[in-house]
Structures are given as C-alpha cells and as structure tokens.
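User: Please fill in residues for this 344-position structure.
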C-alpha cells in the first residue's frame, strides 16, 4: 500500500512538472498599463507559449510578493533601485545573453548601469522622469516648480502618486534635500511636508491618474513621464514639466526571478520584447521612452526625438537623479509612508 501510494505520488509530481501534451506557459509580472496587449498575443501565436500575465502598481508591491517566496514568475520588470536590491538579496538570476540576441538593439548607454554594473541580470525596457502633468486651461499659472504641489489654489484639485519611494523622493527634493537621503532629519521634513499637503490632495493614485487627468478631474498631478505622454495624446490641454529643482530619472528593466519555472520561455519573451518591431509597437501603446535604438529608427528618430517629454534636453537630465537602494533605511521610508497614507 505504502509502495503504491509512493509510486502514485511520484507519478503525480512528474505529471505536475511535465503534463503530457500540456501547453507551455510563462508567467509575467509587470506594471499596470505597461505593455501593448497585442504584443502578448503575437508572442503566443509565434511561439505557442501561453503568457499568464499579472500586474502590480509599485516596485514595493512587486518586491513583497516575490520576497515572500509565495509566487513564482518567469519575467518581471522592476525599476533600477529595486533591481539593485533584488540582486543583493539573491532574488534574480543571471541572464544567458546567448539566448537574447536582440539585446543588440539596446543602446549601449543603457547597459552596465549602476544598478546592474555588469548587465548580468537585466535588460532595459523603458525609462523616464517624474514631473507635473498639468491642465493648461485650469492652472492658475504654468508650473515650473515643485512648489505648485503645495499651492492651496489646487486644494482638492491635485493628484499624488500612491508610491512610497516616488512621493517621498519628490518631497525630499521639495525640502531642498537629496532624493536619496536617509538622514532622519531630512525624512522628517519630507514627512511634515506631505502631512501639510494631504488636505489638498484629491487622491493618491497610480494607474488611475491617467483617466482622471484626461477627464479633467484635477489640474495638476505628480506623474511618470510615459503616463504624461499617454495623457497628452488623449487631451490637448495637458502638458508636462520636470520642475526646475530637479527630479528622479528611472530605468525599468526586464529580469528573471531566482525561482522562475520556465527560464527558456522567459528568455524567448525577453528577446521578443527587444525586437525592433515589437518594441516600436509597444512604445506606441505604452508611451514611455525606450532604450531600443532599432525600434526608434523604425518609429522615425526625428519624430521620436521631437517629444520633450520622452527626450528631455540635457539640462533637464542633468538635474535628475536615479533612486539608489538604501538598504535597511528603506524601513524608515516604509514607516513614514504607512503613517501618511493610513491617515488619509
Ligand atoms: C506604468 C508604470 C510605470 C513605471 N503604469 C514607472 N517606473
């Protein structure tokens, strides 16, 4: 009896691992509104691999799910500082570049970045800045400074990002501090500023910011540049500025988690995303700046570069800083954020 059940168990486990004639799948965990749905369909048609697709709203949500070990994904797309953290914590695996030939399409300026110095774990997907999306027809004056987000003229007429690192980072800049500061006094300033701002905030949102701004529900919003591009395409009255005090520049890159089940499927998918035609199609839908030189050529470099949102002038870029992973000090950020958001 014991032998038989052991045999049955082994068989069941084998079947679970390699179901006869079963569909090959990959599971992908990405930000909301961050892929052209047709790209997923085309991948499935071309490879026969089914994509199980899930979304997250912030790096922190994604991290929590993976670090808990409860979920296994084959492909994820974190930002710079989170990639740095996940490499340190052993949560990512190295990519076998032999299986991702289309990486040749990625502009070398985006490779070997500080968050992944050997380009061992990540393939650049998109990049952007943070700034203010504003409605030209309802703002009292054209915003140039982050102080706009403290202006009582926009009471219940402004939207903030429900994302701890982004919002606290900008609050630090607004207080004149470094956006990577871990000095408790600086963070206290940032917290106080956000507490003071809170009664003016209509809502803390992430993906919903787009529909709300397009519908004219608020005059100003803290947004990521790609979402600004998307909104400006839908509503002519919207415009975007990276405030003079400087901002965050981010790089979102494709990675394979340590516990991926289908690494070869993941590599095929990553290679597909790096293909010029696919990256170009994806850009047109998603709106975020891309590091893919071949795709930009396909789109028409002149037209692509004409967008000051996705191709900011050098003096703007010079004032932007990447978030760094802050180690244990991340906990102070999380604590402050919980206090701010829970009282809302
Ligand atoms: C897209 C989210 C963009 C991520 N909805 C910004 N790092």
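Assistant: Residues filled in for all 344 positions:
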């Amino acid at each position: 009896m014991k032998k038989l059940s052991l045999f049955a168990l082994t068989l069941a486990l084998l079947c679970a691992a390699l179901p006869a004639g079963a569909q090959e799948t990959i599971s992908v965990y990405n930000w909301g509104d961050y892929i052209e749905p047709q790209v997923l369909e085309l991948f499935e048609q071309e490879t026969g691999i089914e994509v199980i697709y899930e979304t997250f709203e912030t790096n922190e949500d994604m991290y929590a799910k993976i670090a808990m070990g409860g979920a296994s994904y084959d492909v994820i797309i974190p930002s710079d500082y989170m990639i740095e953290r996940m490499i340190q914590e052993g949560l990512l695996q190295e990519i076998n570049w032999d299986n991702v030939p289309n990486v040749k399409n990625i502009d070398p300026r985006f490779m070997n970045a500080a968050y992944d110095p050997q380009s061992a774990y990540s393939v650049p997907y998109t990049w952007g800045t943070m700034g203010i999306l504003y409605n030209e027809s309802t703002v009292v004056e054209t915003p140039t400074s982050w102080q706009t987000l403290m202006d009582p003229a926009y009471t219940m007429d402004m939207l903030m990002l429900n994302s701890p690192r982004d919002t606290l980072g900008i609050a630090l800049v607004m207080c004149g501090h470094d956006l990577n500061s871990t000095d408790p006094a600086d963070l206290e300033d940032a917290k106080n500023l956000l507490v003071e701002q809170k009664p003016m905030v209509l809502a803390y949102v992430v993906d919903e910011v787009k529909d709300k701004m397009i519908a004219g529900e608020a005059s100003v919003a803290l947004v990521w540049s790609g979402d600004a591009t998307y909104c400006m395409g839908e509503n002519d009255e919207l415009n975007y500025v990276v405030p003079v005090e400087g901002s965050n520049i981010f790089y979102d890159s494709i990675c394979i988690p340590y516990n991926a089940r289908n690494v070869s499927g993941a590599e095929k998918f990553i290679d597909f995303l790096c293909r010029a035609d696919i990256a170009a199609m994806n850009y047109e839908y998603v709106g975020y700046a891309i590091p893919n030189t071949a795709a930009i050529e396909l789109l028409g470099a002149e037209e692509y570069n004409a967008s000051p949102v996705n191709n900011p002038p050098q003096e703007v870029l010079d004032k932007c800083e990447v978030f760094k992973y802050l180690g244990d000090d991340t906990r102070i950020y999380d604590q402050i954020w919980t206090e701010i958001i829970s009282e809302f």
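For context: The two ends are 60 Å apart (CA to CA).
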